[in-house]
């Protein structure tokens, strides 16, 4: 008897629950919870002395390129950026550690959102081996501690289906302007 495995590389995603999309409380809760995961002020003015905004932009571009090349789930990049910003808002970081921090944030986000997360070894390769897997794993614990292990952050992607549903509903009732007004009144 021969067993054949007919696996495919495509990932089938769960459909959205229409009951959650219809309930205005879900969107309101997302808006309320989102505030807990946003830095309250610009960390460049207070916490960060060595890191400048252009450096954050460079590491963000690198992180996006890695996520795209690795075909990560669409939630990985915004979640990783949320971790990066929250960490930078509380921990003074040297610019020589910024790419390591970005790699750790992608590592954590992919573990939360991917069925096959990025590996430490693969992320080290993307840094041209400027960091070691052990270093990444050590920083993982530091980042988790500073984020208080609170990784289920609300990101812009969480709002997309709610916004689209409201826009479609508003378009059917008399135009886009009414849909936008309805969306803003939440």
UniProtKB/TrEMBL annotation:
Chief location category: cytoplasm
InterPro entries: Cyclin (IPR039361), Cyclin-like_dom (IPR013763), Cyclin-like_sf (IPR036915), Cyclin_N (IPR006671), Cyclins_cyclin-box (IPR048258)
Keywords: Cell cycle, Cell division, Cyclin, Cytoplasm, Nucleus, Phosphoprotein, Ubl conjugation
SMART domains: CYCLIN
Pfam families, per database record: Cyclin_N
Residues annotated as domain Cyclin-like: 61-145
Annotated protein name in UniProt: G1/S-specific cyclin-D2-like
